[in-house]
Specification:
One of its GO terms (cellular component) is cytosol. This protein has 303 residues and is of the alpha/beta class. The chain is 38% helix and 14% strand. It has a five-stranded parallel sheet with strand order 2-7-1-8-9, with helices on both faces. The longest helix is centred in the C-terminal third of the chain and has 16 residues. Bound molecules: adenosine-5'-triphosphate.
Length: 303
Amino acid sequence: MIFRRLCSSLTRSNLHYPSFSKKPTSQVPLFTLGPILHIQNCHNPCKSQKLCVAPRFLSSSVQMEDARRPLAVPIPALEKADKSELLRALETSLGSPFSVDPIHPNPSPMIIVISGPSGVGKDAVIKRLREIRAGLHFVVTATSRSMRPGEVNGRDYFFVSKEEFLSMIEKDELLEYALVYGDYKGIPKQQIREFMAKGNDIVLRVDIQGAKTLRRILGNSAVFIFLVAENELALVQRLIDRKTETKEALLVRIATAREEVKHVKSFDYVVVNEEGKLENAVKMVESIIDAEKAKVQQRRAVI
Ligand SMILES: Nc1ncnc2c1ncn2[C@@H]1O[C@H](COP(=O)(O)OP(=O)(O)OP(=O)(O)O)[C@@H](O)[C@H]1O
Protein backbone atom coordinates (compact mmCIF):
# COMPACT_ATOMS: atom_id res chain seq x y z
CA MET A 1 0.00 0.00 0.00
CA ILE A 2 2.77 2.37 1.04
CA PHE A 3 4.75 1.42 -2.03
CA ARG A 4 1.68 1.95 -4.20
CA ARG A 5 1.36 5.46 -2.77
CA LEU A 6 5.05 6.08 -3.41
CA CYS A 7 4.71 4.96 -7.00
CA SER A 8 1.70 7.13 -7.43
CA SER A 9 3.29 10.19 -5.86
CA LEU A 10 6.50 9.79 -7.85
CA THR A 11 4.44 9.49 -10.95
CA ARG A 12 2.67 12.74 -10.21
CA SER A 13 5.65 14.79 -9.10
CA ASN A 14 8.75 13.44 -10.78
CA LEU A 15 8.04 12.28 -14.24
CA HIS A 16 8.33 14.73 -17.05
CA TYR A 17 7.79 12.68 -20.13
CA PRO A 18 5.59 14.80 -22.35
CA SER A 19 3.87 11.73 -23.62
CA PHE A 20 4.16 8.24 -22.29
CA SER A 21 3.34 6.63 -25.54
CA LYS A 22 6.65 7.92 -26.80
CA LYS A 23 9.82 6.34 -25.55
CA PRO A 24 12.81 8.61 -25.00
CA THR A 25 15.34 8.42 -27.77
CA SER A 26 19.04 9.06 -27.61
CA GLN A 27 18.81 12.09 -29.93
CA VAL A 28 16.28 13.88 -27.77
CA PRO A 29 17.20 13.05 -24.22
CA LEU A 30 14.34 13.45 -21.87
CA PHE A 31 14.90 13.61 -18.17
CA THR A 32 13.36 13.15 -14.81
CA LEU A 33 13.60 15.28 -11.70
CA GLY A 34 14.59 13.46 -8.55
CA PRO A 35 15.23 9.74 -8.51
CA ILE A 36 15.62 7.94 -11.78
CA LEU A 37 12.71 5.61 -12.38
CA HIS A 38 13.06 2.31 -14.14
CA ILE A 39 10.21 2.12 -16.56
CA GLN A 40 9.20 -1.50 -16.88
CA ASN A 41 6.35 -3.33 -18.42
CA CYS A 42 5.52 -5.19 -15.25
CA HIS A 43 1.92 -6.09 -14.49
CA ASN A 44 2.12 -5.47 -10.81
CA PRO A 45 4.90 -2.93 -10.36
CA CYS A 46 4.45 -2.50 -6.65
CA LYS A 47 5.41 -6.11 -6.01
CA SER A 48 8.57 -5.70 -7.99
CA GLN A 49 11.91 -5.33 -6.19
CA LYS A 50 12.89 -2.57 -8.64
CA LEU A 51 11.21 0.80 -8.49
CA CYS A 52 9.05 0.69 -11.54
CA VAL A 53 6.27 2.70 -13.01
CA ALA A 54 3.66 0.81 -14.96
CA PRO A 55 1.98 2.47 -17.91
CA ARG A 56 -1.37 2.45 -16.12
CA PHE A 57 0.10 4.81 -13.49
CA LEU A 58 1.12 7.26 -16.16
CA SER A 59 -2.36 8.43 -16.68
CA SER A 60 -4.47 11.51 -17.13
CA SER A 61 -3.32 13.13 -13.87
CA VAL A 62 0.21 13.34 -15.25
CA GLN A 63 -1.01 14.87 -18.46
CA MET A 64 -3.01 17.44 -16.52
CA GLU A 65 0.08 18.35 -14.51
CA ASP A 66 2.08 18.63 -17.72
CA ALA A 67 -0.28 21.28 -18.99
CA ARG A 68 0.63 23.51 -16.06
CA ARG A 69 4.40 22.94 -16.34
CA PRO A 70 6.69 24.43 -18.97
CA LEU A 71 7.14 22.08 -21.84
CA ALA A 72 10.07 19.73 -21.47
CA VAL A 73 12.78 20.96 -23.81
CA PRO A 74 15.51 18.92 -25.32
CA ILE A 75 18.71 19.12 -23.35
CA PRO A 76 21.63 19.46 -25.73
CA ALA A 77 24.32 16.79 -25.63
CA LEU A 78 26.80 17.77 -22.93
CA GLU A 79 29.94 17.23 -24.97
CA LYS A 80 28.75 19.46 -27.81
CA ALA A 81 26.60 22.05 -26.06
CA ASP A 82 27.46 25.64 -25.54
CA LYS A 83 27.41 26.21 -21.75
CA SER A 84 24.95 29.09 -21.80
CA GLU A 85 22.64 27.20 -24.16
CA LEU A 86 22.80 24.22 -21.81
CA LEU A 87 22.05 26.42 -18.79
CA ARG A 88 19.08 27.99 -20.57
CA ALA A 89 17.70 24.60 -21.52
CA LEU A 90 18.06 23.36 -17.94
CA GLU A 91 16.39 26.49 -16.56
CA THR A 92 13.51 26.23 -19.01
CA SER A 93 13.04 22.60 -18.19
CA LEU A 94 13.06 23.26 -14.46
CA GLY A 95 10.70 26.18 -14.87
CA SER A 96 12.80 28.89 -13.18
CA PRO A 97 16.15 30.61 -13.64
CA PHE A 98 19.16 29.57 -11.56
CA SER A 99 19.53 31.90 -8.61
CA VAL A 100 22.77 33.66 -7.71
CA ASP A 101 21.54 34.39 -4.17
CA PRO A 102 23.69 32.77 -1.47
CA ILE A 103 22.37 29.31 -0.62
CA HIS A 104 23.26 29.92 3.03
CA PRO A 105 23.19 33.40 4.62
CA ASN A 106 26.49 35.01 5.58
CA PRO A 107 27.57 33.98 9.07
CA SER A 108 26.68 36.55 11.69
CA PRO A 109 29.45 38.29 13.66
CA MET A 110 30.46 36.31 16.72
CA ILE A 111 32.24 36.77 20.00
CA ILE A 112 35.34 34.68 20.68
CA VAL A 113 36.55 34.58 24.26
CA ILE A 114 40.21 33.61 24.71
CA SER A 115 41.26 32.71 28.21
CA GLY A 116 43.85 30.68 30.08
CA PRO A 117 46.24 30.86 33.02
CA SER A 118 48.60 33.77 33.40
CA GLY A 119 51.69 33.44 31.19
CA VAL A 120 50.20 30.80 28.89
CA GLY A 121 50.50 33.09 25.87
CA LYS A 122 47.11 34.79 25.45
CA ASP A 123 48.67 38.08 24.40
CA ALA A 124 51.18 36.33 22.14
CA VAL A 125 48.43 34.36 20.34
CA ILE A 126 46.24 37.43 19.98
CA LYS A 127 49.13 39.56 18.70
CA ARG A 128 49.80 36.99 15.95
CA LEU A 129 46.09 36.61 15.10
CA ARG A 130 45.91 40.37 14.74
CA GLU A 131 48.73 40.24 12.18
CA ILE A 132 47.34 37.44 10.04
CA ARG A 133 43.54 37.55 10.17
CA ALA A 134 41.22 40.26 8.92
CA GLY A 135 37.66 40.84 10.09
CA LEU A 136 38.45 40.42 13.77
CA HIS A 137 38.20 43.18 16.31
CA PHE A 138 40.34 42.68 19.39
CA VAL A 139 38.59 44.46 22.19
CA VAL A 140 40.91 46.75 24.00
CA THR A 141 40.34 46.15 27.69
CA ALA A 142 40.27 49.02 30.12
CA THR A 143 42.65 48.57 33.04
CA SER A 144 43.71 50.51 36.08
CA ARG A 145 47.17 48.86 36.12
CA SER A 146 50.22 50.81 35.07
CA MET A 147 51.72 50.44 31.63
CA ARG A 148 54.46 47.82 31.06
CA PRO A 149 57.46 48.68 28.90
CA GLY A 150 56.52 48.42 25.22
CA GLU A 151 52.78 48.68 25.84
CA VAL A 152 50.77 51.36 24.03
CA ASN A 153 47.65 53.04 25.42
CA GLY A 154 44.61 52.24 23.23
CA ARG A 155 46.39 49.34 21.53
CA ASP A 156 47.24 46.97 24.40
CA TYR A 157 44.86 48.39 26.99
CA PHE A 158 43.03 51.59 27.76
CA PHE A 159 45.02 52.66 30.78
CA VAL A 160 42.74 54.57 33.13
CA SER A 161 42.97 55.66 36.74
CA LYS A 162 41.17 53.73 39.46
CA GLU A 163 38.66 56.59 39.77
CA GLU A 164 37.92 56.58 36.04
CA PHE A 165 37.43 52.82 36.15
CA LEU A 166 35.00 53.06 39.06
CA SER A 167 33.02 55.68 37.15
CA MET A 168 32.75 53.29 34.14
CA ILE A 169 31.35 50.61 36.47
CA GLU A 170 28.83 53.09 37.83
CA LYS A 171 27.58 53.99 34.35
CA ASP A 172 27.18 50.32 33.40
CA GLU A 173 29.62 50.76 30.54
CA LEU A 174 31.40 47.45 31.10
CA LEU A 175 30.26 44.03 29.95
CA GLU A 176 32.39 42.43 32.64
CA TYR A 177 35.07 43.65 35.03
CA ALA A 178 37.23 42.25 37.78
CA LEU A 179 39.89 43.15 40.24
CA VAL A 180 42.91 41.10 39.12
CA TYR A 181 46.04 41.05 41.30
CA GLY A 182 45.04 44.45 42.71
CA ASP A 183 44.22 46.05 39.34
CA TYR A 184 40.84 46.56 37.67
CA LYS A 185 40.27 45.13 34.19
CA GLY A 186 37.02 45.44 32.23
CA ILE A 187 35.45 45.12 28.78
CA PRO A 188 33.79 48.24 27.34
CA LYS A 189 30.36 47.36 25.88
CA GLN A 190 30.26 50.20 23.36
CA GLN A 191 33.32 48.92 21.53
CA ILE A 192 31.71 45.51 21.02
CA ARG A 193 28.45 46.96 19.74
CA GLU A 194 30.22 49.30 17.36
CA PHE A 195 32.43 46.64 15.75
CA MET A 196 29.77 43.93 15.58
CA ALA A 197 27.55 46.42 13.78
CA LYS A 198 30.35 46.76 11.20
CA GLY A 199 30.35 42.96 10.72
CA ASN A 200 33.51 42.24 12.70
CA ASP A 201 34.00 39.21 14.91
CA ILE A 202 34.96 40.20 18.42
CA VAL A 203 37.90 38.71 20.32
CA LEU A 204 37.89 39.09 24.08
CA ARG A 205 40.96 38.25 26.12
CA VAL A 206 40.09 37.56 29.73
CA ASP A 207 41.41 35.61 32.70
CA ILE A 208 39.59 32.52 33.91
CA GLN A 209 37.41 34.44 36.36
CA GLY A 210 36.42 36.79 33.55
CA ALA A 211 35.61 33.86 31.29
CA LYS A 212 33.38 32.40 34.00
CA THR A 213 31.51 35.67 34.33
CA LEU A 214 31.19 36.03 30.57
CA ARG A 215 29.83 32.51 30.27
CA ARG A 216 27.18 33.48 32.79
CA ILE A 217 26.32 36.63 30.82
CA LEU A 218 26.65 35.33 27.26
CA GLY A 219 25.91 31.62 27.71
CA ASN A 220 26.42 29.73 24.48
CA SER A 221 26.06 32.84 22.36
CA ALA A 222 29.87 33.23 22.39
CA VAL A 223 32.64 30.71 21.75
CA PHE A 224 35.02 30.07 24.63
CA ILE A 225 38.62 28.97 23.97
CA PHE A 226 40.92 27.81 26.77
CA LEU A 227 44.63 28.20 26.10
CA VAL A 228 47.03 25.90 27.95
CA ALA A 229 50.74 25.19 27.91
CA GLU A 230 51.78 21.60 27.22
CA ASN A 231 52.58 21.14 30.91
CA GLU A 232 52.99 23.04 34.17
CA LEU A 233 56.78 23.35 33.92
CA ALA A 234 56.56 24.99 30.49
CA LEU A 235 54.06 27.50 31.87
CA VAL A 236 56.26 28.39 34.86
CA GLN A 237 59.34 28.78 32.67
CA ARG A 238 57.43 31.09 30.34
CA LEU A 239 56.40 33.28 33.26
CA ILE A 240 59.99 33.38 34.60
CA ASP A 241 61.37 34.25 31.15
CA ARG A 242 58.89 37.10 30.77
CA LYS A 243 60.54 38.87 33.71
CA THR A 244 57.50 41.03 34.45
CA GLU A 245 56.68 39.70 37.92
CA THR A 246 58.24 40.04 41.32
CA LYS A 247 59.00 36.70 42.99
CA GLU A 248 55.92 37.12 45.22
CA ALA A 249 53.65 37.85 42.27
CA LEU A 250 55.19 34.93 40.41
CA LEU A 251 54.29 32.59 43.24
CA VAL A 252 50.69 33.82 43.32
CA ARG A 253 50.31 33.46 39.54
CA ILE A 254 51.70 29.92 39.53
CA ALA A 255 49.52 28.81 42.45
CA THR A 256 46.48 30.37 40.76
CA ALA A 257 47.34 28.74 37.44
CA ARG A 258 47.32 25.32 39.12
CA GLU A 259 43.72 25.89 40.16
CA GLU A 260 42.69 27.55 36.91
CA VAL A 261 43.50 24.64 34.62
CA LYS A 262 40.73 22.72 36.38
CA HIS A 263 38.17 25.06 34.75
CA VAL A 264 38.77 23.76 31.26
CA LYS A 265 35.46 21.86 31.30
CA SER A 266 33.38 25.02 31.10
CA PHE A 267 35.02 26.03 27.79
CA ASP A 268 34.07 24.99 24.26
CA TYR A 269 37.61 24.36 22.98
CA VAL A 270 41.08 23.83 24.43
CA VAL A 271 44.18 24.90 22.47
CA VAL A 272 47.69 23.84 23.48
CA ASN A 273 50.26 26.60 23.08
CA GLU A 274 53.39 24.47 23.02
CA GLU A 275 56.84 25.90 23.71
CA GLY A 276 58.25 27.33 20.47
CA LYS A 277 55.06 26.40 18.55
CA LEU A 278 53.05 29.57 18.80
CA GLU A 279 52.10 29.33 15.11
CA ASN A 280 50.35 25.98 15.68
CA ALA A 281 48.26 27.44 18.47
CA VAL A 282 47.31 30.42 16.32
CA LYS A 283 46.35 28.11 13.43
CA MET A 284 44.19 26.08 15.78
CA VAL A 285 42.35 29.20 16.95
CA GLU A 286 41.79 30.17 13.31
CA SER A 287 40.42 26.72 12.55
CA ILE A 288 37.98 27.02 15.44
CA ILE A 289 36.75 30.36 14.13
CA ASP A 290 36.35 28.90 10.63
CA ALA A 291 34.49 25.87 11.96
CA GLU A 292 32.17 28.08 14.01
CA LYS A 293 31.42 30.14 10.91
CA ALA A 294 30.46 26.99 9.04
CA LYS A 295 27.95 25.91 11.69
CA VAL A 296 24.37 25.57 10.56
CA GLN A 297 23.06 26.84 13.89
CA GLN A 298 25.06 30.03 14.49
CA ARG A 299 25.74 31.53 17.91
CA ARG A 300 24.13 34.96 18.13
CA ALA A 301 25.43 37.29 20.78
CA VAL A 302 23.51 40.43 21.67
CA ILE A 303 25.26 42.97 23.89
N1 LIG B 1 54.37 29.10 22.27
C1 LIG B 1 55.22 29.86 22.98
N2 LIG B 1 56.51 29.46 23.09
C2 LIG B 1 57.39 30.21 23.80
N3 LIG B 1 57.11 31.34 24.45
C3 LIG B 1 55.83 31.78 24.38
C4 LIG B 1 54.83 31.07 23.64
N4 LIG B 1 53.67 31.74 23.76
C5 LIG B 1 53.94 32.82 24.52
N5 LIG B 1 55.22 32.85 24.89
C6 LIG B 1 55.89 33.84 25.76
O1 LIG B 1 55.42 33.56 27.08
C7 LIG B 1 55.31 34.78 27.80
C8 LIG B 1 53.89 34.91 28.34
O2 LIG B 1 53.03 35.14 27.23
P1 LIG B 1 51.86 36.20 27.29
O3 LIG B 1 52.32 37.47 27.93
O4 LIG B 1 51.29 36.26 25.93
O5 LIG B 1 50.92 35.43 28.29
P2 LIG B 1 49.48 35.86 28.83
O6 LIG B 1 48.69 34.61 28.86
O7 LIG B 1 48.97 36.97 28.01
O8 LIG B 1 49.86 36.34 30.30
P3 LIG B 1 49.06 37.32 31.32
O9 LIG B 1 47.69 36.72 31.50
O10 LIG B 1 49.87 37.24 32.57
O11 LIG B 1 49.07 38.67 30.72
C9 LIG B 1 55.69 35.90 26.87
O12 LIG B 1 57.03 36.26 27.09
C10 LIG B 1 55.50 35.28 25.49
O13 LIG B 1 56.34 35.86 24.54
